[in-house]
Structure formats: structure tokens, C-alpha cells
Amino acid sequence: MVLGFATALLLWAPVTVSVPVLLTEAVILVGGMAVMLVANGALLRWGLSPLDRLTKLMTTVDLLRPGQRLSVPRPSGGGEVTELISTFNAMLDRLENERATSSARVLLAQEAERRRIAQELHDEVGQSMTAILLVLGRAADDADEPLRGELHQAQEITRESLDEVRRLVRRLRPGVLDDLGLISALTSLTQDFATHTGLRVTRRFAPDLPALDHETELVLYRVAQESLTNAARHADAERLEVSLSRAEGAVVLGIRDDGRGIEAACEGAGIRGMRERALLIGGSLDIVSAPGSGTRISLTAPVPRKQP
Q1: The sheet that has 239-247: what strands, in order across it?
Q2: Exposure of 261 by Cβ count < 10 A (0-12 exposed, 13-18 middle, 19+ buried)?
Q3: Distance from the Cα of residue 190 to its chain's centroid
């Protein structure tokens, strides 16, 4: 419309210019030039707007939040710009796939290392401390006071240390997850957490949860474990709620606390690790929090399709 008006204005203007220049001719020429400049500026702004959106996405893109893409403009908007945006979207696809693959390798290696350390703690440290307990017990039976009391005290300290080693083994390798399943593992995790932190933990597990594969159950367990650890360390909470519910084609793990909340920009290594685990199973992690209003973490894990 602007271009049509400018063109009509220039066509209406006289072809020749009087000498000296008349005021009406000068007004028409200046007005036409002004309209053309405004029209060119508007066209440039419209043509370069995809590049502005591309620049903003480049500065904010996060591979742990996949799916951030730009709509490709029509070819009439400029073939080079369309090709640039298409190439950038393709680059994001490749980077997200490579990140997911590398994260899967790292997390699988991490789980293997945890199992190895847990096995060594159980076989070496645990058995050695059990032997120490037996030796201390026999020595205490044959000793006189006050040595007997000191040996009983050392025996008690060793027993507490053995209990701590066993707790570490359970955290590193949740055997109950392999033996009894996700709900039993989360029940054991929350009970152990409440015992050691003194926080009140409420469990809400839906009874009709679909069957999940071991990898999905392990991701749900690790995210719950990390969320509880973060709540104990940073949230200054008194009560927590851990829930498992069923959604359409997915299982949703929820962890809610009544603590002080977190800033949106304060995502540390723990939360980013949870996001990587969510991506490993094709899930999504959502965190809703505000200072003074607690934190709610929700992991939506898709139910694996049954093989025909």
C-alpha cells in the first residue's frame, strides 16, 4: 500500500522541473523521496526480522530444552535468509542428537561405576568392618573394666560406620529397585531420607501404574533421589511430598516441598543432571518455584511401547 501510494505520487508529479524550482514541485519531490525512504525502511525491517529472531534464539538456546526452532519464512522473503534459518534448525537437530547420545554414554558409564564402587564397599569395606565388630565383641567379653567399656564404645562406633556404609551402598546401587520395583524402591528411599533428615515425607503412589522398563525406572529413581537431596541441602523445608501418577501414555513423578524456593536462574549441576536423565528416556522435566513458595519438580516419563 505504501509503495503504491509512493509510486502514484511520483507518477502524478511533473516530469520536468521548472527553473527556478517551484514550491509545489519541491514539495512533491521531497514528499516522494520521504515516502520511498520510509517504504524502504519498512521493507528492510520486515526482511531482516527473521535474522533478529535468529540472533535472539542463538543467545538463549539450551540443548537441555530441546525443540527450540525458528519457523522458516517463505522463499519470497529472501532465499538466503530461508536457507540460513533452515541450516540453523538442522544444526540444532544434529547437536541435540549428539548431546543425547553422549549424555546416554556418560550416564550409563556413571551407573556402571556406581555399581562397581557399591560392590567394592559391600565386599571389601563392609566385610572388613563386620570382622572388626566380631573381634571387638570377643575382646570386650574377655576384658575387664574400664577397658570393656571402651571396647563396647569402639564397637558401637564401628557398627554405626557399618550402617553408614550400607546406606551408601543402597544409594549407589538401589538393589531394591532391581528386586522389588520402582514403588518399593521409592518407599525405601523416602523412609531412609526421613529417618536421616527428620523431614516429614508424604507418599502418593497411584495403584494402576503401567509397567516400565528398567532404564525408565532408574531415571525416575535417580531424579527423586537428587530432588530429595537438593531439598535437604538447600530448600530449608519441613515437609515434602513424593508422588507417582499416571498420565496419557506417561508416568509423572512429582516432588514438592514447602521450602524457600529457588531462583529460575539458579539451576546447578544437580538440576542439569536431572534434565539430562530426562532426555535419556525422552521425558521432560519441569520445575516450578518462586522465592518463599517452595519448589515443585515434575518428571514426565513416556511409557515404552510394547514390541509386537
Answers
A1: 200-205, 239-247, 250-257, 295-302, 284-289
A2: buried
A3: 22
Which pLDDT tens digit goes with each residue over 103-125?
Answer: 778 778 877 888 888 888 877 88
Q: Cell 547437536 maps to which residue?
A: 95
* 22: DSSP letter: P
The values of phi and psi at residue 226, to 5°, are -65, -40
- Helix/strand/coil for 246: strand
Answer whether 250's CB lies under 8 Å from 303's CB.
yes
Q: Which domain holds residue 201?
A: 176-308
The residue type of 301 is A
What is the rounded average pLDDT of the residues 141-145? 83
Count of CA atoms in the C-beta half-sphere (13 A) of 9:
19
3, pLDDT greater than 70: no
3-state class percentages of the chain: helix first, strand second, coil last, to nearest 5? 65, 10, 25
- How many other CB atoms sit within 10 Å of the CB of residue 186? 25
- Structural domain count, the chain: 3
Residues 149 and 259 in one domain: no
